[in-house]
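subagent[fold] <- orchestrator: predict structure for attached chain, return tokens only, no commentary.
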Amino acid sequence: MSTAAVMAGGKSSRMGRDKLLIEVEGETLVGRAVRELGGAFDTVLLSVADGKKYSVAAEPVEDVFKGCGPLGGLHAVLLRTEDEGAFIAAADMPFFSAEAALRVVEACADAEACVPVWADGRLEPLFGYYKKELAPRAEKLLREGRRSMRSLLEVARVKTVPAESLGGPRLLENLNTPEDLARAFPAK
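subagent[fold] -> orchestrator:
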């Protein structure tokens, strides 16, 4: 079995509206992310602050630690999964592929987490695989008020995959502002 989770708990404050409900090519961003991962993983979860917010074919998983961002969402997903771990993808990355997700999972091996790394050394924690054994460390960080995904990566055995090896340059592009949306999907 394999689990993936779409991270959909953000506030979309820079977009000015719920960006995950934006339709692109006839499909909402959240719906597209769920569909893409559903073709490759046995279970797809939806990490959300409010379980009733989106109507998609994924089981909603609400944060245990409310208002703690992606680390709170990952923690809840790791508690929920019955698998060795879970792959997570931000729902606002419209160009990722399930194939790239599976390559990240396969690369993890005996590490506790596997994430893409850019040529400049920046990690992309919201397109990664995390093993269930990290849940207690995530909880400890959250209780300490440390909410950054990077703080978890600092205390985990991490393997990285060159971002460029996973697909085109847009694979991990995310949409945060109306300008990002216009650049990604120019009006025809």
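orchestrator: received. Logging for downstream: The two ends are 41 Å apart (CA to CA). Residues 71 and 148 are 6 Å apart (CA to CA).
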